[in-house]
Design goal:
The protein is α+β, with helices and mostly antiparallel strands. 33% of the residues lie in helices and 19% in strands. It is elongated and about 70 Å long.
Length: 320
Amino acid sequence: MSVVGGPERAVGQRDVVVGAGFEAVFLDPVGRMVQQRWAVAAVAVAFEELDPVSAFPVVPGRRWGPGLWWSATTGRHVASGSNAMRAQLMVLDRDPRVLGIAGRPVRVLWRDGRGRGRVRSWVPRLFARYKDGTGMLADCPSHPEAGGERASEAAAVMTEACAQVGLVYRRLEPLDRVMAANLKWLAGYRHPRNCGRRGLMAAVLGAFTEARPLIEGVEAVGDPIEVLPAAFHALWHGQLAVALDVPLHERVLVHSPTVLAGTGSAADRRGSAVQGRDAVHGRGVGHEGGGGARGQAVNGGANQCEGAAAGGSGRDGEAV
């Protein structure tokens, strides 16, 4: 039997012992460190409900550090360690198949098979539980080569460990910049309070039973300052659909998920985006900036969401 300790161990945690095969180390609901055989823990433990087994590191010089993401799926905070991880949390938080999410809930231990069988460990960045009972452990590299050889070796081991217990392991690819910017904007409206007054959400959904430019549908319902937050909330939760591979702007085509948009191809969507930007002379929605009356309406909708949010500070916890 070998003892795992050293610099990777969190302050105050006792040493843990590794037997044969894969082992799991995690914190129970009252914060005590528990070690179990991996095959037992993967079946019996709800990783999606656990706190991080160890803290995310703070790296000096980075523009973005560890924080908390308020999940619209669970209504709770999820620990996040990097900008790349936050982007992946946004994707999972919008996925209707996802039931629960957790950051660094488990450390997996194994022997590397070299020489005297040195004990190795890896803590995947996140865990996602799906409604069908399956689960995914994943890492969120900022670029494909992030982590070097050690991360590559750990990925192979984690793939094997997960396959043994019916889970999957992924190294999630970084999001395209446009996709990430669009999700970041919509995430600012993920909180239920953006549904607005009684009857407003139903009116918003009814305005887009057929594909039409965002601003046209919004103005058909009422004052954009009031209606836009509800429209963005519906777009975040998939009650309305929009192409996220082109920048959001006020003339982007929005439609019901059950209705095909009139411009199905990526080329058509990009053409629509260019046409929309030309039509509003740069008064874009979200990350494209804005000016003029309709741009001010968008900014006014965002200002409604400022202040203390259930998920943090700013526009519905955007910065957490």
